[in-house]
Amino acid sequence: MPTIEIQTIPSTEELDQSILNLENYQWIVFTSVNGVASFFHQVYALSRDARSFKGIKIGAIGPATAKALAERGLHTDYLPQIHTSQGFVSGLKDQDVSGCRFLLPRADIAPKELADEITKLGAEVHEIIAYKTVPPNEAISQGKQMLLAGEIDIITFTSSSTVTNLLSLTGDEQPAIKKAIVACI
Prior knowledge:
Layout: E1 5-8, H1 13-20, E2 27-30, H2 33-45, E3 57-60, H3 63-70, H4 85-92, E4 101-107, H5 113-120, E5 124-134, H6 140-148, E6 154-157, H7 160-170, E7 181-184
Parallel strand pairs: 2-3, 2-4, 4-5, 6-7
Antiparallel strand pairs: 1-5
Helix pairs in contact: 2-3, 4-5
Pfam families: HEM4 (PF02602)
EC number: 4.2.1.75
Family: Belongs to the uroporphyrinogen-III synthase family.
């Protein structure tokens, strides 16, 4: 039972201007496959492509994100050994990013930690909302009924959003979750 749905942000002036003025950035950091897909949805809508990223260093938090970038014609210049925001910033410390301008397309609920830590290295970070995570509308009632009936044996959480949304969905009936094995990635 999915507990999150990814929604591309409709075109906004801020998002469009960021894409139309990519030459103002030295770095663009993508934190997820969803961020890549949503950002490029708008890149293509504005009749742009991989050529618009010429001269910009591309960062990806993990290998799946780097693969999504490669599928769109972009080489990842920096992929940390530890695939977390902390791992990304730790590796950036070996590079001189002081004075660089970073563009950080992200989810509406993404923590500010990555931007804050890059800023501490002397860089300027422009965060842009590229997508939203929302509870899905479909299959919720059936999934909730199955959970409450004890018919779900294993629950796998893929992000903090999936945890938040399931807890919101179950409300006062959260003890039903205790009947299942819970795994988090």
